[in-house]
Amino acid sequence: MRDLNTNLVVNLIKTARSISRADLARRSELSPATISNITGRLVRVGIVSQGAIQPSKAGRPPVLLSLNEQAGYAVGIKLKEQALTTVITDLAARVIYTAESKAPLAGDPSAATRAVAQAVRQALRAAHVVRKRVLGVGIGVGGLIDAAEGICRYSHILNWRDVPLRDPLADELQIPVWVDNDVNCLTVAEKWFGAGVGLKHFLTVTVGRGVGLGIVVNGEIFRGALGGAGEFGHVIVSPDGPLCHCGRSGCLEAMVSEPALRAKASLLLGRPISSQELVALAEAGQPAVVGVLEEGGRQLGLALANLVTLLSPERLIVSGEGTRLGAPFFSVMEEVVREKAFANMGANVDIVVQPWGDDAWAVGAATLVLRELFSLSVSEGPRSLPQSLAG
């Protein structure tokens, strides 16, 4: 019960940014004595700071409490075929260190374990972060992930099946480790620090090398029976369509991902073009490229309209490297969502296209760790304050 109450108080302080003990007691419905005990312990271990004194008309003026965002740190890692991205963030998910390192991970899980352990140690040294202030390591992987057990059940990108990541890495590093699907990591980041804050029902759709989906229902990530909910890119939209790298034909990903759009534009231009050139040509208004992007936006918009009809989210957050494709793609996408979703669902859903940073996937992985500090979830079980910060 103390762990539950502590998480609740920490999350209320984070959300309010600055709050008195009396307001904490009122919002949490905990007794003033319980609030005093919890906040006293949090102040002693440095997670919470006492700041300005709030003006008061009568009695002792209340002291405002705020989260000490440098009290602890999280490491986030995004695994790719031939590389991994590592970040260290503070408690507000602000990046204080980032690095990219090459490693042949596809088909070699043992190489991934070694590479992650080495990357974490190098990052902590480079950022001058002492191990005892590290809450944990979050790892984002594309594929079907058993988040409860920390196992990658299947990743066609890495060519892995039933690869345990959490336990071997936790043993190696002597730091808690969490593992999840990379799009779910971004969704957790949106829920706690981004466009999903305060929302109970929202979707995070990623467009880039692939097409992914994170689903939040009643404030919780929806994973499905096998942890595979959200493989939106592998919904078949055209059975006779192009071959997808998953081995099937006509997947949405094979139609609207950035590589698919680039391949179509290259064919029309009669020469191969890079991702950077695709974006540059779109910004310059090159007719063939603009036409390809508009058609891709239309196809994605239809698929998203069906999602909105099925799930009725408050907000649709679009993220990923593909957000650099710009207006020709996303203006058409939004127009189709609003027009084709059932009844007034498309008109009422809020659509947000997020700016993209190259380290965003790894920041999402780091928020797996931060969630453990801030989350209070009955359905997922109580989360406790990390032992390194528990005093």
The biggest beta sheet is recorded as:
5 strands, mixed
**CATH fold topology of the largest domain:** Nucleotidyltransferase, domain 5
- Spatial order of the strands forming the largest sheet: 6-5-4-7-11
Round the Cα radius of gyration to an integer and report it.
Answer: 22 Å
Characteristics of this structure?
single chain; 391 residues; alpha/beta; Arc Repressor Mutant, subunit A; Nucleotidyltransferase, domain 5; 3 domains; five-stranded mixed beta sheet; 16 strands; globular
Compact description:
The protein is of the alpha/beta class and 391 residues long. The chain has helices at residues 2-16, 21-28, 32-45, 109-127, 166-173, 182-193, 252-256, 258-269, 275-283, 287-311, 327-340, 345-348, 360-374, and strands spanning 19-20, 48-53, 63-67, 73-79, 83-89, 95-102, 134-141, 144-146, 151-155, 160-164, 177-181, 202-207, 211-217, 220-221, 315-319, 350-353.
Furnish the topology, listing elements before pairings.
Elements: H1 2-16, E1 19-20, H2 21-28, H3 32-45, E2 48-53, E3 63-67, E4 73-79, E5 83-89, E6 95-102, H4 109-127, E7 134-141, E8 144-146, E9 151-155, E10 160-164, H5 166-173, E11 177-181, H6 182-193, E12 202-207, E13 211-217, E14 220-221, H7 252-256, H8 258-269, H9 275-283, H10 287-311, E15 315-319, H11 327-340, H12 345-348, E16 350-353, H13 360-374
Structure, described:
With 391 residues, this protein is an alpha/beta fold. It has 13 helices and 16 strands. The chain has helices spanning 2-16, 21-28, 32-45, 109-127, 166-173, 182-193, 252-256, 258-269, 275-283, 287-311, 327-340, 345-348, 360-374, and strands at 19-20, 48-53, 63-67, 73-79, 83-89, 95-102, 134-141, 144-146, 151-155, 160-164, 177-181, 202-207, 211-217, 220-221, 315-319, 350-353. A hairpin with a 3-residue loop joins strand 12 and strand 13. The strands form four sheets. A five-stranded mixed β-sheet has the order 6-5-4-7-11. The protein has a five-stranded mixed β-sheet with strand order 14-13-12-15-16. It is 41% helix and 22% strand. The protein has three domains: 2-67, Arc Repressor Mutant, subunit A (Orthogonal Bundle), CATH 1.10.10.10; 73-187 and 360-389, Nucleotidyltransferase, domain 5; 196-353, 2-Layer Sandwich (Nucleotidyltransferase, domain 5), CATH 3.30.420.
